[in-house]
């Protein structure tokens, strides 16, 4: 689809490009649903074992690069619970976004934006690579699609390539994720060097066996055993490095800085890539290699704490931002951190690996409600023409559909029963409680903050004070059906998704697991969320001086949060002051003066000497004849002397 | 001993070659220069006849006198104003030219003297090459036969025709 | 009196030297070409002479001259075509003045 749209895009009309892109995605959606449905419900022995365990099933796998007998890289199609789940999530969100973009990428008079076809081509490319990523049968194939996803994300963030901020944001995103991918690649290489395989199936089944009898007896790990590097086993290093790739894509601290800037892209892109699909690739990666991570509990603890710190940090920053999309971006970071924490605390012995299931569950529900929130934000931005929500007070009367759907999204993310977020977040909290009380309290606090900042956003946009329509503008109104229909569908999914008996489908080892709500945990988290919502309601429902007071009560904290704890400045300092000055300058000097200097010297010598002998090449025939004659005469003279001498 | 007629012929040929070739390069009117070249070429053709190479002499007259000189005359008429003398040569240039010519003469003459024995060889008897023998030699592929140069030459001429057309074509 | 090889070689040598003189002194390109023809002819005559006097039973010299004549014809035709074109372009056929394409 990408190829088709990319090649013929300019020849198609705008409407055709949109329709084709959407239809293509629709077909993919139908296929993915069929696949997932077949996988989960057909009872085919390929997919479900006799005892009801769900199996990994490789639909096909061809050798693509054959290095030598032990090392081949294949391309294939792997189906297991999480890839089937991700297929559904990606195609659903992607389809919604394709549909939505038909409306979003026009102005109020129905005029299409320039590059509309290009936009659809990129969207299709992204969807393709994301799907390729989730069905990858081996880590190398995953890496390829991983990079493709990064590249298409780069293209889409920089879609408005005439805007300098968009260009620098896309560069930033690309460079940061590339840097993380370096770690990923090194991790892959270490892992495959010691195990001799790239294949997920082999790696995981061996790791499962090793976990079961607490030993490294599996032959593929034998060479790793006892190899220590800088105080950690090789396995830990490999896994931590691979996790670094995941950190980059999923915007974990300290590699999160690209995601807020990535909001320069069109809003549907933010919804698709930077909220629902690409950023969870990191989570997916860890989940995919989860049995390996289980072998090294240290690496899982690193995952937990990176996630926990990121979650708190992002939630605090989100409380102070004024750009609606940035709030959502930080909220995304925070929610992904939730999933990471959940994976990090998952242990087979605690609630049969509840954390893993909870993480995937949260991934699923989060994708739905975060896409919903982003699309709502898109609708608002489209109506108002600004990202800044100080321009959007009191919109509830003007845009009722957006209002309701946004509210549903907020309730879902805040974790209010019976919306989707409640169930998944509750599972996560239950999983953390099983592992460590500290993490549990921490994450509950973050959940409360989540509820607070989401409702702060909600009240500021839709209540606060009456909307003042600027002179000469129309009153903001709900958007055309292409934009509202996805909102409604996603809102409906957000309402009911929590009811899905998720444990039946996705668990770390394939055995079905029955979710039972832990009502203490649920009650506490519910109470925290409601309290936070009430607080937000008091502070932001009507225009009042309370927020200002809060701000002046903690001036330093507020400033730090508002400036995102100066991470960007820190990076700026490191890259510009230390790396550029300390390393790049000398290298550049060396390059310019020594290497280029040598080359320049050669060129200069050639040039000088050619200028010197240019006079000889006069083009004057008679001069040539003269020189020729002189040569002949000299030869004759020499011959004569030789002959006479003899 | 040669017959008197032969000697007279030789004297005529040698004198006309020397005189006309020198005149060719010293006359200031370029059209005259071409005419003297024609005479020189005729003298060369006569020399070929005298040495029993009738075919070569005929070719010399046909190609050189009939073709090349006519070309020269045309091009001279196209590029020069009639009656226009080339400017008088500066003496330095003339002296340099003389030096070059004399030096060349000296070197070659000296080389000839070094090979005195061969240079004084007398004219041996020879049968005139027959035209059909020449034709066979040109068309054959054996020893002392020249099909390959002949064909190469034909290709060269073709290239020359094309080149001439391209160069002379109106833009 | 016997007419030996040297008797013919001397006029041919003079012809060649005249060609050299003409080539280095004349400025007109056609005049230069004429001088070139003189030199070429001197060489042709030498080929024929050596063939006739030293190796009368063979005919290489004659054939060489034959081909040389043909090639000279071709070359002259092309050279004249170029000269005429140059003349059309710059109205001048003095070799020393044709510096237009030097740089």
Short description, anyone?
Helix content of chain A is 69%, strand content 4%.
Attribute tags:
heterotrimer; B: 171 residues; mainly alpha; Four Helix Bundle (Hemerythrin (Met), subunit A); 2 domains; 7 helices; globular; C: 103 residues; Helix Hairpins; 3 helices; elongated
Text of the CATH class of the domain at 28-97 in chain C:
Mainly Alpha
Helix content of chain C: over 70%
Q: Strand percentage of chain B, roughly?
A: under 5%
CATH superfamily of the largest domain in chain B: NADH-ubiquinone/plastoquinone oxidoreductase chain 6, subunit NuoJ
Q: Counting H and I runs of at least 4 residues, what is the number of helices of chain C?
A: 3
Largest interface: B-C, 82 and 70 residues
**Helix segment tally of chain B:** 7
Query: What best-fitting shape of chain B do the alpha-carbon axes yield?
Result: globular
Largest sheet of chain B: none
- Give the structural class of chain B: mainly alpha
**Uncertain stretches of chain C:** none
Radius of gyration of chain C: 17 Å
The helix fraction of chain B, in percent, is: over 70%
Count of β-strands of chain C: 0
Q: Mean pLDDT of chain C, as a whole number?
A: 84
Distance between the termini of chain B: 63 Å
Oligomer: heterotrimer
| String of helices and strands of chain B | HHHHHHH
General description of the model:
The complex is a heterotrimer of chains A (646), B (171) and C (103). In chain A, 69% of the residues lie in helices and 4% in strands. Chain A is mainly α and 646 residues long. A two-stranded antiparallel ribbon of chain A has the order 1-2. Chain B has 171 residues and is an all-alpha fold. Chain B folds into two domains: 1-86, NADH-ubiquinone/plastoquinone oxidoreductase chain 6, subunit NuoJ (Four Helix Bundle (Hemerythrin (Met), subunit A), Up-down Bundle); 129-171. In chain B, α1 runs antiparallel to α2 and α2 runs antiparallel to α3. The mean pLDDT of chain B is 83. Chain C is mainly α and 103 residues long. Chain C has a domain at 28-97: Helix Hairpins, CATH 1.10.287. Chain C contains three helices and no strands. Chain C has helices at residues 5-25, 29-54, 60-90. In chain C, α1 packs antiparallel against α2 and α2 packs antiparallel against α3 (60-90). The termini of chain C are far apart. The model of chain C has no long low-confidence stretch (mean pLDDT 84). Chain A binds chain C through residues 618-622, 625-626, 629, and chain C through 20, 23-24, 32, 95-96, 98-99, 101-102.
